[in-house]
Amino acid sequence: MEITNLVREIVRVTKKIKQPDLVSFVDQVQKAQKVYVTGEGRSGLVAKSFAVRLARLGKMVYVVGETVTPPIAPNDLLIAVSGSGETKTVVETVKICRVMRGNVISLTATEKSSITRISHFSVVIQAHLPKRLGHIYHLRELIGVPERPPVASIFELASLIFLEAAAFKLEAIWQRNNRDKRLLPS
Prior knowledge:
Belongs to the SIS family. PHI subfamily. The chain is of the alpha/beta class.
């Protein structure tokens, strides 16, 4: 896919993201004591990228599955990223979070998926996803299921842009509330 076509497709998809979803997302991240992120494959990389942004803003943030991740507590926030909304480990993580009375926001391309049904709030990124064999990411990788075509990465790219926009808003709020502090210590 040529760069201009890729950018055109990203613009088309991101224009469909509802502005109130961004506002609500930022509000919920801001209110959370601790934030956890989860996702598999490229979606997991997007989630981890957002975790880095939050950490630099001084937010307590954890990546699910890392060895230093503490148990989730009531009113903590889990951000789950899954294009299909059916990735087994992500869905199970959301279920556990709900049992522990944590709040869940999902980013997905699939409006009627398992993850949207069990999340408190979902941001639907209307990117086209081709059908995949199975919902267990690690098993697909082990058996060598072919990677999605380039157009399928639009979900991850649009999710990254959404999360970057949220990070910009959170940074602006942080700067307004902390005028006398530097963002990062020297």
